[in-house]
Write a structure and sequence with these properties.
single chain; 5 helices
């Protein structure tokens, strides 16, 4: 009798590409800071963002407050849900349609603030950007400080 191997590589690739979906499904509060996603660890009394994070490019994650760490998204889900990496792989495979079945329900988490729905019908592309919408650099600060303070993701033209 041969046993079928779990598709860890395929699942990790899909989970890394859909990392924010995985975090939402796992009930984790998160914020993006460049290529790093900072999270509030639901497994301990975490006071805020910064000590628990994952590299959105590689999947390497760590909780610097406790020393818990891992090398991929499957390991992160196993840690968050307190079960084996095999079970985490199966759940993520179901979540991304790689295996048939339903993924386990999300972990209980603190309620998120309701997000304001965005109507696709009101979105309109502006090209080129009008000069009056570009803003201007204040005279008292002629150079950009170099630190990105916000990040926006825009939908593709196709919707």
């Amino acid at each position: 009798m041969t046993t079928k191997r779990l598709p860890f590589d395929e699942v990790n690739t899909a989970a890394l590409n859909g990392l924010t979906r995985v975090l939402d499904w796992a009930g984790v509060h998160w914020q993006q800071a460049h290529h790093e996603i900072q999270m509030i660890n639901p497994k301990r009394a975490d006071g805020g963002y910064g000590s628990f994070s994952i590299n959105a490019n590689t999947g390497v994650w760590s909780d610097f407050a406790t020393g818990d760490k891992g090398g991929d998204v499957v390991a992160l889900v196993a840690y968050l849900k307190s079960y084996s990496q095999g079970d985490a792989c199966k759940d993520l495979a179901r979540l991304f349609g790689i295996m048939v079945g339903e993924a386990s329900p999300a972990s209980a988490a603190l309620p998120l603030a309701p997000s304001k729905p965005v109507s696709v019908d009101t979105w309109q592309e502006l090209r080129p950007i009008p000069a009056d919408m570009m803003g201007s650099i204040p005279k008292r600060k002629p150079k950009h400080p170099g630190k990105i303070v916000q990040y926006w993701t825009y939908p593709p033209v196709s919707g």
